[in-house]
Amino acid sequence: xxRGDRPYGDRxxRGDRPYGDRxARPSTPGGxxxxxxxxxxxxxxxxxxxxxxxxxxxxxxxxxxxxxxxxxxxxQPYEPWNMEGLGPxxxxxxxxxxxxxxxxxxxxxxxxxxxxxxKQPTGRPKFKTAEEYAPDSDxxxxxxxxxxxxxxxxxxxxxxxxxxxxxxxxxxxxxxxxKVAPGDDVRYAGERLKSERKxxxxxxxxxxxxxxxxxERARKTVMDLVSKACRERIYPVGRLDRGTTxxxxxxxxxxxxxxxxxxxxxxxKIYHVTLDKPFSPADADKLKRGINLEDGPVAVDKLEMxxxxxxxxxxxxxxxxxxxxxxxxxxxxxYEVVKLDRTVFAGLTKKNLxxxxxxxxxxxxxxxxxxxx
Length: 373
Hints:
The protein is an alpha+beta fold. The chain contains six helices and 19 strands.
C-alpha cells in the first residue's frame, strides 16, 4: 500500500488530528492577534545621559610599552643584571644582595620594609607540603606522635590526651603541647606505640593535578595518585604547578624535605622546556648571566638545546626553587612556555616510570638524599 495508508492495527488513518472545538488561542491579552508595526525610534535615557567617551591612547595610570622592548606588554621587561660591586652571585632568593637598611632607617629583608607587624594568614592554607611539617628538633608534639602512629587524627588525639588515655614512661599526660623525645615509652590503652617509619615515594606527575594535600575546590591532587602507596601520611616536597609534569617526591620526613627545598641547599632540578617560538642564542646568554625578576635576580646553572634542529625545545638546569620560576624566566624574555616537564630532582629521575605511576625509593637513593649538601 502507499506510504501513509499502511494498516497498523487499530490506529486511525492519517489526517488532521482532532483537537476538539477549542478555539485558536490569541497571542495578545486583548484577544486580537499581534501585528508587526514600524520599529520604535531609539531614545537615550535622559536621566542617565550619554556614556562619556574614553580618550584614545595609553592612560596615565597604565604602563607604556615601547616597540622593540623584550617581553610582552604587561610583563616586566628584561633588564640586564648589573654585577658590579655586588660580589659573588647569589641566586637562592635569600635577599643577600639587597640593602639591609632603607632611607628611613628601618631594617629591610629581601627589599621589604620591616613594619613590625606580621601578616596573619586567613582561611585554610593554600598548600600543605612536607617541609612545612619539618620538626625544629628531635622532639615531637604528643598529638602529632599519636597521628603518626596511625591511632587517629591530631584533633582526635587531643581528646584522647584530655581524657587521660595516654601515658609516657608510665605517667598519665594530659598536656596538649607535651613534647615526646626519642626513646620515650608512649602507650595508648596499655599498648606501646611506635612512631611511623620514614617513607619516600617518587611520582611521575601528570598534567592536571595540583601539588597539595587537599584542595578546597575539590580539584584533583597528587595525593589521589599515591593514595595506595603506603599507610603513612606523606606530603609533597616542593611544588609543581598544575600544568607541569615530571619528577615529584613525597615523604613524611619533614627534616629531609626542608633540606631539599631550603635555598641554602638548593636541590638540583632539570627541566625540559617547550616554547611557543624558536629560542634565541642571545637570550640563552642572558639567562646564563642572570636577569632581574620582580622577586630578585635569577640565573640558570646550565642551558642546552637537546636538538639543534629544533629551537623550540630547551633543557634547563637550575637550583633556585621559587614559585613558577622557569615559566617566569622565559616570560620575561618574551616567550611562552607551552610544555614544562621536570626530568630530574635532587638526583632522582623518572626512568622506567610512566606518567601517573609511582614507586618507593630504595636504600641507596635514600642514603644519597641524606648526604646531599
